[in-house]
Amino acid sequence: MEIAKSMMIAAAGMQSQTERMRIIAENIANANSTAHSPDEDPYRRQVPTFENTLNREMNVPLVHMAGTVSDYSEFREQYNPGHPAADAQGYVKLPNVDPLIEMMDMRQAQRSFDANVSVIDSARSMLARTIELLRR
């Protein structure tokens, strides 16, 4: 039963990291988007939030993505007076997304995902060995 619990915890971790990677991909995809007019804001970076829950049936703590929150750091600005979203000084607001930070976050999410895969592989191997020993 403990092996099943560890596999359940790892699977929840994999699901959370998959959702985290989706949010990061959205941020990267919108890193260079602009607003349509000077009075609008461009895309605002999203940050995933996580929370712990308890699976009462098996008494197992699990993690899942609770949602996202907007990052209210300053927008980047670029001088481009011919752009339709340029302000009176000729600056266009760009999203507050730094692709380098997003790529580092993506790498961290990937490593966490891989660690959870390793837990599942180890649990599966232990279960197979247990079954093999019980057959003897």
Write the layout of secondary structure elements.
Elements: H1 2-29, E1 46-55, E2 60-70, E3 76-79, E4 91-94, H2 99-135
Helix pairs in contact: 1-2
Q: How would you characterize the overall build of this protein?
A:
Helix content is 48%, strand content 21%. By secondary structure, it is of the alpha+beta class. It has one domain. The strands form two sheets. A two-stranded antiparallel sheet has the order 1-2. It has a two-stranded antiparallel ribbon with strand order 3-4. Strand 1 and strand 2 form a beta hairpin. Helix 1 runs antiparallel to helix 2. The model has no long low-confidence stretch (mean pLDDT 94).
Order of helices and strands: HEEEEH
What is the strand tally?
4
Rg over CA atoms, rounded to whole Å, is 22 Å
**Global geometry:** elongated
The domain count comes to 1
Task: Extract low-pLDDT stretches.
Answer: none
Number of discrete helical segments: 2
Task: Let me know the average pLDDT.
Answer: 94
- Spatial strand arrangement across the major sheet: 1-2
Strand content is 15-25%
For the largest beta-sheet, the strand count, sense and barrel status come to:
2 strands, antiparallel
N-end to C-end Cα span: 21 Å
Helix percent reads 40-55%
* Helix-strand makeup class: alpha+beta
Concise synopsis of the structure shown:
The protein is an alpha+beta fold. The protein contains two helices and four strands.
